[in-house]
């Protein structure tokens, strides 16, 4: 379904979606603004085009894998394409599926991953567990490790310490940027695990030392090596394979590999989509199943 925005229709994509739903548009749909993927809170103007398309089927969408659980804290595996928490559009999320699966209304996300990112998310059941996680975080006892595929051949290891703040880009989307008015200290350690010289890419292990919005994505972009599939920060949206075929990238090449706390830890296998992307880039062989925190 398409909608041509007219004066008075509303200021945000969400306003237009409400009108489209009143005419029978599906509640579970992919949102596009002027031909590109969009978020509900993005602004619209007269003449813009909002489109809704049926959401792609997600394998095992009715079941969330719980990797570890103890004393009200659980580590769950979020696939790319699934929000961590339910938005105002009311679609399924990691939290809502866990509520159904665990038959509990007290599930809360203590960490978050962007929709197009996969991996381990820390969730809590009840206030006591939430306080316990916050205590671990304040004591720096909550370790997180990520795997990413970045455009550019980086050094073997290093640290990104670029302050970041929230602002809107030219399309009106929220981004993290060193050029924002109110920036805060942000630090990320990186280690290059392998390289793809033909594709000009690096397979990285990322360890955030702070927790700013989009920190890993923004730091990689600021270093001149945006993550594949991350259009918002300048990442490539496709790869040309050796046989000349063009491979489209429909997710961000970022995966929360694992989390370690004082009482439990878990590692999430690297998705096939990222393994396939690395192969398409001509990357060096990687022992994917041997990757650990």
CATH topology of the largest domain: Pseudouridine synthase
Order of helices and strands: EHEEEEEHEEHEEEEEEHEEEEH
The CATH superfamily of the largest domain bears the name Pseudouridine synthase
State the helical fraction. Answer: 10-25%
Give the number of helices.
5
Radius of gyration: 20 Å
Domains, number = 3
Overview of the molecule:
The chain is an alpha+beta fold and 293 residues long. The protein has helices at 13-22, 94-102, 127-138, 215-222, 272-280; strands at residues 2-4, 29-33, 36-37, 49-54, 65-70, 73-78, 107-109, 118-125, 143-151, 157-160, 165-168, 174-177, 188-196, 201-208, 238-240, 246-248, 254-260, 265-267. The strands form four sheets. Strands 5, 6, 7, 8, 9, 10, 13, 14, 17 and 18 form a ten-stranded mixed sheet that branches. The longest helix has 12 residues, at 127-138.
Summary?
The protein has 293 residues and is of the alpha+beta class.
Secondary structure layout plus pairing:
Elements (H helix, E strand, L loop, with lengths): L1 E3 L8 H10 L6 E5 L2 E2 L11 E6 L10 E6 L2 E6 L15 H9 L4 E3 L8 E8 L1 H12 L4 E9 L5 E4 L4 E4 L5 E4 L10 E9 L4 E8 L6 H8 L15 E3 L5 E3 L5 E7 L4 E3 L4 H9 L13
Parallel strand pairs: 8-17
Antiparallel strand pairs: 1-4, 2-3, 2-4, 5-6, 6-8, 7-8, 9-14, 9-17, 10-13, 11-12, 13-14, 15-16, 17-18
């Amino acid at each position: 379904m398409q909608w041509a925005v007219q004066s008075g229709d509303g200021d945000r994509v969400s306003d237009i979606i409400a009108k489209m739903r009143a005419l029978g548009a599906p509640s579970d749909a992919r949102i596009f603004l002027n031909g590109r993927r969009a978020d509900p809170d993005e602004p619209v103007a007269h003449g813009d085009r909002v489109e809704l398309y049926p959401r792609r089927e997600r394998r095992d969408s009715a079941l969330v894998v719980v990797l570890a659980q103890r004393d009200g804290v659980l580590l769950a595996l979020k696939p790319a394409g699934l929000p961590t928490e339910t938005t105002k559009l009311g679609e399924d999320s990691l939290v809502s599926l866990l509520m159904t699966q665990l038959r509990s209304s007290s599930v809360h996300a203590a960490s978050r991953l962007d929709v197009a990112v996969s991996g381990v998310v820390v969730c809590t059941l009840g206030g006591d567990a939430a306080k316990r996680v916050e205590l671990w975080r304040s004591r720096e006892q909550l370790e997180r490790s990520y795997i990413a595929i970045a455009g550019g051949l980086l050094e073997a290891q290093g640290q990104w310490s670029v302050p970041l703040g929230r602002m809107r880009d030219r399309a009106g989307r929220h981004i993290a940027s060193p050029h924002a008015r109110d920036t805060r200290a942000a630090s990320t350690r990186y280690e290059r695990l392998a390289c793809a010289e033909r594709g000009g890419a690096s397979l990285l292990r990322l360890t955030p030392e702070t927790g700013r919005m989009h920190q890993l994505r923004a730091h990689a972009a600021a270093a001149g090596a945006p993550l594949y599939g991350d259009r918002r920060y300048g990442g490539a949206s496709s790869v040309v394979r050796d046989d000349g075929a063009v491979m489209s990238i429909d997710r961000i090449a970022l995966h929360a590999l694992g989390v370690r706390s004082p009482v439990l830890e878990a590692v999430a296998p690297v998705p096939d989509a990222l393994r396939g992307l690395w192969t398409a880039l001509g990357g060096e062989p990687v022992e994917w199943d041997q990757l650990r925190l």
